[in-house]
Amino acid sequence: MAVIEATPAKTYATYRVSVDEYVRFREKGYLVVKGLVPPDDVAEMNAFMDDMLAGRRAISGALIMKDLGQKPGSPGEWLRAHMLHRRSPIHERFLLHPRTLDVLQALIGPDLLALQSMLFFKQPGQPGQGYHQDAYYLPTFPDTLCGAWLALTPATRQNGCLYFAVGSQNEPVYPDPRGTGQALSQNFSDLGTIEHPSATDESLNGLSRVVKKYAGRADAVEAEPGDVVFFGGHVVHWSYTNQADFPRRSYVGHYCNARSLVLWNHGEPWDGDSANYLHILARGRTHLPYAQPLFGTPCAANAPQAALDVGPLQPMSMMGLDDGLMGASEHPAQEPEDR
Fold first, then answer.
1. CATH, residue 266
2. What digits encode the pLDDT tens for the residues 58-95?
3. In this structure, how many other beta carbons lie within 10 angstroms of the beta carbon of residue 140?
4. Buried b / exposed e across 37-54, counting CB within 10 Å, b at 16+?
C-alpha cells in the first residue's frame, strides 16, 4: 500500500466574485465559474485517480460505492467514493481549495464549514443520479447548504453532465413519508411528501412532479476541466448515464455557513445537539464547535491568519436624523455607571 503524505500548501490568486455572478446564482440556482481551479491541480487529482484505478494507490477505509451502497468487486466498477477528505491529504486539500472557498465566501459566507467530499469516477456505461435536492440529505439550520462541483474531465451531455431545473431553487425541500427532509419543511399546507428521490426512473422519482413545473427550463451544464459549478441545497438537479467512451470525473464538496447547525455526519452518529464539531472550519469564525483538518491543510480552523479579519463590529441603530429622516447612527459610547 502506498504511503500517503501531506503536500505543502500552494498559494493562489484570490478569486473575486462579480455582482453579476452573485445575481446569476440567485436567479438560476447555480453558478459556473470557468477555470477556477488551475490545470496543474486538476492534473494532480487525475493522476491520483489513475493510480487508484491501477492499484498503485489505496486509501484505507475508503467507501467505494456502486449505485446505492453496493461495494464493487473491481476498480472497473468504481462509480464514486465518499468522505475521502477524512482519509487522504489530497482530498482534504481539494475540499479546502482556496479558490473554491473564495467563491463560497461570497455566496454563503463569510463563515464557512466544510462538510462532505465526493469523488466521481463515472466510467463509461455507469449511471447518473435522478432528480434530487441536496438539502434533503444534508440539513443545516439556518438553511445554507451549497455544493461545489469541480470538473476533472470534460463534462458533456454524452458522458452525463449535470442538469438543473432552473427556478426549483425557490421550492421548499420535499420530505419523504419517513421524515427525511422534514426538518426543513415545516408548516406548509400543501407540500405533501415524495418517494424515491435520486431514482433514475422518472416514474418512481417523486420529484418528477416538481421538475414538470419547470418544463423547458432544464439547463444542461457542460464543463471543462477546472470549471466549478456552485449550487444551492434546494435546486433540483440530476445527471444521466455516461454513454461516451471516456469518463466524467468530478470532485464535489458540500459546505454551509459555519454559524448553521449541522445535523449530518454521513450516516454516522454524533454526540450532543449537532455534528458541527466533526466538520472543518474553512473560513471565517463561528460560535459553534468545529473540527481540525486531519492532514493539516491551512484553513481558519488551524491558521488564525486564514480567519476573516473584519475588525471590531460597531453596533448601529436606526434613529431620527437632523433632516427628519431615519438613518443608521452609531451607538454612543457608554460611560461606566458610578457606584
1. 2.60.120.620
2. 776 665 544 434 455 678 888 889 999 999 999 999 99
3. 27
4. beeebbeebeebbeebbe
**Residue 98, SS3 per DSSP:** helix
Helix axes 19-28, 98-107, angle to 10 degrees: 70
Q: Which residue bears the cell 480567519? A: 307
Residue 232 lies in domain: 21-306
Q: What's the grid cell of residue 91?
A: 482530498
227-283: per-residue pLDDT in tens? 999 999 999 999 999 999 999 999 999 999 999 999 999 989 999 999 999 999 999
Domain presence at residue 75:
yes
Number of domains within the chain: 1
Domain membership of residue 125 (yes or no) is yes
Q: Does residue 196 contact residue 181 with C-beta atoms inside 8 Å?
A: no
Q: Where are the alpha helices (DSSP H) in 18-158?
A: 19-28, 39-54, 89-95, 98-107, 134-137
Measured distance between the N- and C-terminal CA atoms of the chain, rounded to whole angstroms = 71
In this structure, is residue 326 part of a structural domain?
no
Evaluate if residue 331 carries a pLDDT over 90: no
Q: Which set of grid coordinates corresponds to residue 180? A: 427525511
45 lies in some domain: yes
Spatial contact of 192 and 200, defined as CB atoms under 8 Å apart: no
pLDDT interval class at 10 (50, 70, 90): confident
What Rg, from alpha-carbon coordinates, does the chain have?
22
Please indicate whether residue 204 or residue 65 has the higher confidence score (pLDDT). Answer: 204
Query: Which has the closest alpha carbon to 34: 21, 46, 22?
Result: 21
